[in-house]
Amino acid sequence: MSGDDLSKTLRETDQAILRRLREWAEKIVRNAQTEKRVYMEVPVRTFSNVYYDEEKGIIQMGERVAKREFLNVGHAKKFLQTSLVAAAIKDLVAEGITTSLRDVYYRIKHTIPGTKENTVDDQRESDKAIEDLETMLGFVREQMHVFSKGGKGKLAGPVQIEEIVPDPDGGKPRVVETDGEDVGMGGWAIPPIAEPERVQIKKVEADFVLVVEKDAVWTRFHEDRFWDKYNCIIVTGSGQPDRATRRIVHRLHYEFKLPVYVMTDADPWGWYIYSVYKQGSINLSYLSPTLATPDSRFLGLTISDYHEFKFGKEVKIKLTDQDRKRLKEMRRYPWFKHKAWHNEFDLMEKEGFKMELEATSSKYFRYITKEYTPAKLESKKFLP
User: Fold this and answer.
1) Is 106 a catalytic residue?
2) Catalytic residue among 106, 261, 333, 367
3) What CATH number does residue 176 fall under?
């Protein structure tokens, strides 16, 4: 897709959002005229309306909808907040500019005339209003020109990317090209908005995607040019991944049919990060179809690896009560029901320790790229 085509697609998406906002507002007015009630219908995003879709392998939001009424004391403030955020988004899209969640919070925050009451007291309130609008309008916030903050993710490898950068004054957008094999030590920084209207993945010559939990460990893979030797794309979300990183991994898999392998610490928190890439998250269950990659496989690290690769006892980190509590919670998640995972849970509890990816350096600094990961790839001992 050319720069002009990208620009056209972005304009079409913007027009669709503006049209949907107008329809949404008109429905509220129509309800007020016909039913004499001012309300909006909001999909319920609580845990009670979230389920695990066995067939698709992702966490999904159910179909329950609640009415948020303007003349209901318990609903009025949220109704106002959602309306104010919708107006702010309309301005952003119409002007063709982007902004952060924090900016939106300050844009709509003011004291209601004649009262001491603020429209919003905490950013979490405006953030939730944006999430409500995502579910009501059918567009993600990134498409609505809103991002969280600077992207956390980065990648390197045989992939060519084009970013479209809109001109805030209405001029022709810039198209920025990146070759993933020709990036510095920082790799290609995944932008906070990674939708196809903004980021085009032009060409991929890799055989698979390797997602590494930690930024520092990813740097080891990048410096050792692991992506070159094993013809892969290496990605990191620098811990718990942001939406943009998950979106790029999802797109690489679905648009180019690349297998996805995820590497995290051997602890409950790292293993849960893997599940976020794979099944999605409970909080963002409504976005799982565009963020989750259910065909992902877990490459490492496990407690079984401690024995198989003969690591020394100095790498062991004692499990905390919080670790054990998290492990107990994960046992109940249907997406961790596979026997192979429960075997690892049992082993961790029995032996009472966890491990970090950096523990592989106890052998030597490049052990993770020279021996550990190649051995895991060759054996194909991936957890589901």
Assistant:
1) yes
2) 106
3) 3.40.1360.10
